[in-house]
């Protein structure tokens, strides 16, 4: 039960903070968001103590994921 509540909170905060100006994703069902944003074709590489996520350019939601990732990394840290 706590895991389901955490997942629901994560979905709600993602919609509020990251997807607010993408109407198709902001109003989407949780399953749609999982399939379009979380199940992404990518390759994770490591070099010189840095990890890089290489997205498949042909994936239709690559731009949306990139914008949402940039927004998530620019959020202020909680203190």
The proportion of residues forming helix, as a percent range, comes to 40-55%
**How many angstroms does the end-to-end distance come to?**
28 Å
Number of strands: 2
Q: What proportion of the residues form beta strands (DSSP E)? A: 15-25%
Described by the principal axes of the CA atoms, the overall outline is globular
Parts with pLDDT < 50 across at least 5 consecutive residues: none
Strand order of the largest sheet: 1-2
* Number of separate structural domains: 1
- Mean pLDDT value: 88
Computed Rg: 14 Å
Q: If helices are DSSP runs of H or I spanning 4 or more residues, what is the number of helices?
A: 4
Oligomeric state of the chains in view: single chain
Query: Helix and strand string, N-terminal first?
Result: HHHEEH
The computed structural class is alpha+beta
Largest pleated sheet: 2 strands, antiparallel
Structural overview:
The protein is α+β, with helices and mostly antiparallel strands and 79 residues long. The chain is built from four helices and two strands; from the N terminus they run αααββα. A hairpin with a 2-residue loop joins strand 1 and strand 2. The chain starts with a helix and ends in a 5-residue tail after the last helix.
